[in-house]
Amino acid sequence: MLFTPGVTDCSPAEAGYDTSRIEVLNAHFQTLIDQKKIQAASYCVSRYGKTFMHGAMGPLSFREDRVDPLLPTTVHNIASITKAITSVAIAKLVEDGILRFDIPVGAILEPLNVAPFDKIDIYSLLTHTSGLFPDCAGSIPYHKSYWQLIEEYFEKYTPEDGDPDWITAALSCGVNKKLGEEWQYCSFGFCLLGEIIKKVTGVTAEQYIEEQILKPLGMKDTVWELTPELAKRAIIRNERHEKRLNDRINGNQPEDSQMEQLWDTVSKTGGGLASTPADLIRFANMLLGMGTLGDTRIVGRKAVEKITTRTLHGVPDYCWGNDVKDRSYGIGLDMRRGPAFLYSETSYFHEGAGACCMVIDPTEQLAAVWFVPFVGDNWYAEGLFNVTNIIWSGLI
C-alpha cells in the first residue's frame, strides 16, 4: 500500500475514535484502487475541531509508469463542493442585509424579470427547486443544455454586441417544471447565484468568496486558478490535464482566446474551486463552530442554523434515475437520509463530481473530507456512501 500520513492535531483515542477503523478505511480505498475504480484517495477527518485522521494513498498521476505518490497536500478540483462555499457567501450577504433568501432573482438579474422566470427566488436556486432544467436533462428530446446554449451564443458574439449576455442566451430553453415542484440538481442556478453576488457587491463572486471566506479562514490551498506552485502539487488525471498543469508550471500559458475570455465572464460558483482535504476541513469546522473558526467569524450562528436545517419536505427527486418521494435538503447543503447512512440525523454534506465529499455531523462534532478520483467518467457509491459509513463506524 502506497500510503503517506498527513499532519494531525491529536491521536484517534484523544478524539474518542477507534484506531482500528482507520486500517479498515485504508484497506477499502486500496481495494477500490486495485479494482481500478479510483486512481487514488486522500482524506482528512476531525472531531471537536482537531484533526486525528489525515492521509493519502495511490499514485499522483494517471500514468502507470510514474511512481510519484498522491500526498495529503495534493490539490484536487472540488467540483460541486464549491456550491457549499457559495451558499455560505449568499448567507453572509443575507445576514448583512444586502439580500434575502426570498428575493426574486429577476429583481437583481434583469433577464429573469419576465415569465416564466420571474417567480424564481434565491431560495429556490439554493435548494434546486427553481424549475430550471437539471444537470441530468440530457435524455430530454431536443433539449440543449445551458452550457451548449452559452457556447453557441459565444460563437456568434462580437464586441459590437455590447457586454456579453450569456444569461439571456441560456434561458432561451425556458423551464421544465413549476417552482417547487421537484428537486432538480441545477449547477446553472449556482452560476446565477454568482452573478447575484457580483451585482450586489460590485466585485466578482470569485473575489468576494476569496476575500470574505477563503482568506479569513486561512485556506491558502483553495483557489479558483492554480498558481505554478499549486500546479506542481495537483493530481494528474489525464493527458489534457497534464499538459495544462505543465504549461502553468513552466509559465507557458498562451494568451486566452476570445472564447476563453468570454467563458471567464460566467461565474465559477457552481464548481470552480480547487483545494486539499486539510483546507476544506477548515471550512467544515467553521460550520461546526456555527460560523466561527478560532477567533475568525465568517457568518453568525443563526445563518448557519438556517442553511443547515432541513427545509424541503414532500418534494420528489427523480434526478439520475432516482425515485425519491421526499428529498431532504437544507439551503445549499444536502441532508439526505435513509437506510444507507450511519451518520447522525443532524448531518449535512456536499459531494463533488469526479469525486470528492465533505460530511459534517454536528451531533458528533465530526467533519470528514475525502477525495476519490474516479477512473473514467464512472461513479461508484462505494467511494462515497460506503466511505461515510466506515468513517462514522469508528466513533466510540
Automatic annotation (TrEMBL):
- Give any Pfam family that matches: Beta-lactamase
Matches recorded under InterPro entries:
Beta-lactam-related, Beta-lactam/transpept-like, Diverse_Enzym_Activities
Per UniProt, which keywords does this protein have?
Answer: Hydrolase
**Superkingdom of origin:** Bacteria
Instruction: Decide whether keyword Hydrolase is in the record.
Output: yes
- Name the SUPFAM superfamilies on file: beta-lactamase/transpeptidase-like
Q: Which residues form the Beta-lactamase-related domain?
A: 26-372
Protein name per the record:
Beta-lactamase-related domain-containing protein
Source organism (scientific name):
Paenibacillus helianthi
